[in-house]
Design brief:
230 residues, single chain, 37% helix, alpha/beta, five-stranded mixed β-sheet, 5 strands, Nucleotidyltransferase, domain 5
Amino acid sequence: MTVSTVRRRTVVRRDAGLYAYERTLARSGFAPVAGADEAGRGACAGPLVVAAAILPTGRRGEVPGLADSKLLVPAVREQVYDEVVARAQAWSVVVVEPGDVDRVGLHRCNIEAMRRALARLDIAPNYVLTDGFPVTGLGVPGLAMWKGDQVAACIAAASVIAKVTRDRIMCELHEKWPEYGFDAHKGYSTPEHQQALDRHGPTPVHRRSYANVSRVVSVDDDGPRGERET
């Protein structure tokens, strides 16, 4: 008699809760599960920041208030950040400078930074969940998830780490270039930011490969307006 073994397909409902994916993967023998996400992809100034995180299984890994970082007000996001870094089994951050985004390209920088962030984790994951984009060459299985920061806890944790880290960097850049309002819009293309760009020209932390920045670059003997010495 021939016995054939068929592995049952595991289905996780998207409305099953933020921790359902990790718990299902853990029951299937894939723990620990890492999540990766980025902040600043759409900004025209400042760095791209990518984070990775592994949360403990069970209730120890449940972070109060955890959600997609974009859905949290800044004060709550800071509180959730503290909880994530305190509870995480491992976490890491990679900061990609604006010049690298211009030179290499946004998407390539994004994928490579996810690889680097995952490689820097103190604990090697057995499965990886990423927000939006598949990341190959990790040596372990993975899944790219649409709006993953809203449906998988480890991705949401990574999104909070990335967002808070980047916001703090942008507030530091505001101290150097207060006329651009980096502390308010965090480098995204708001009307106020564009007005400052039109008035002062780009700073060294603006991404010149972005159309709204490149069209206001004005070069003369002294260089771009935003880079002249004062």
